[in-house]
Write a structure and sequence with these properties.
By secondary structure, the protein is an alpha+beta fold. It has one domain: NADH Oxidase, CATH 3.40.109.10. Helix content is about 35%, strand content about 15%. It is built from six helices and four strands. Strands 1-2-4-3 form a four-stranded antiparallel sheet, sandwiched between helices. The longest helix has 18 residues. Bound molecules: flavin mononucleotide. Flavin mononucleotide (FMN) binds next to loops.
Length: about 170
């Protein structure tokens, strides 16, 4: 799959088939993640592969909009280090999106889980205090085909030269 096709066809996936995602594949995705750019090439990211169903269930309890992660065969927790990079969350997000697009190109779905009790989740995963738990990312073969969620129109989000100056109608 070409990058453009992956960008335009990707959807967040919240229902997964029970089909396993082997470690080689997960490592391939983490390998794609670590190719992302990062501030000063700090690469302030680490990844925990979680397969233990009990652990997934505990994490799901801490994520009000991520209960469905229990259905995914594997969950990857993404940890970033504020001491390694002032932009650790940005760096981490770029890595996550690399992983997400690489996964999609291989027929796999993911969904960023944002809201969670991070302190409790860090305890469960034994993440050291100084590190940040960016997200827990479920990965699995999609068992749904979600519709495209609407995007704000280009002309509403793009200006010419100065903030607020609309593009002329014929532009582009
Ligand atoms: C920072 C961030 C946090 C998110 N948190 C959640 C979440 O907690 N639960 C969830 O189901 N989706 C979550 N999402 C997924 C968004 O809802 C989704 O990306 C958005 O609705 C657009 O849909 P699409 O990804 O299918 O294009 C999150 C996405 C981002 C980028």
């Amino acid at each position: 799959m070409q990058v453009e096709e992956a960008i335009y066809s990707r959807r967040s996936i919240r229902r997964y088939s029970p089909r396993d995602v082997p470690d080689e594949l997960v490592l391939k995705l983490i390998d794609a993640a670590r190719q992302a750019p990062s501030s000063k090439n700090s690469q302030p990211w680490e990844f925990i592969i979680v397969r233990d169903q009990e652990v997934k269930e505990k994490l799901a309890q801490l994520a009000p909009y991520g209960r469905f992660i229990t259905q995914a065969p594997v969950v990857v927790a993404v940890v970033t280090d504020p001491e390694k990079s002032r932009f650790h969350m940005v760096d981490g997000a770029l890595a996550v999106h690399n992983l997400t697009l690489a996964a999609w190109a291989l027929g796999l779905g993911t969904c960023w889980i944002g809201t969670m009790d991070r302190e409790k989740a860090k305890e469960i995963l034994e993440i050291p205090e100084g590190k940040h738990l960016l997200t827990v990312l479920p990965i699995g073969y999609p068992a749904e085909r979600p519709q495209l969620r609407p995007r704000r129109p280009l002309e509403q989000i793009t200006y010419l030269e100065k903030y607020g100056r609309k593009l002329p109608e014929h532009h582009g």
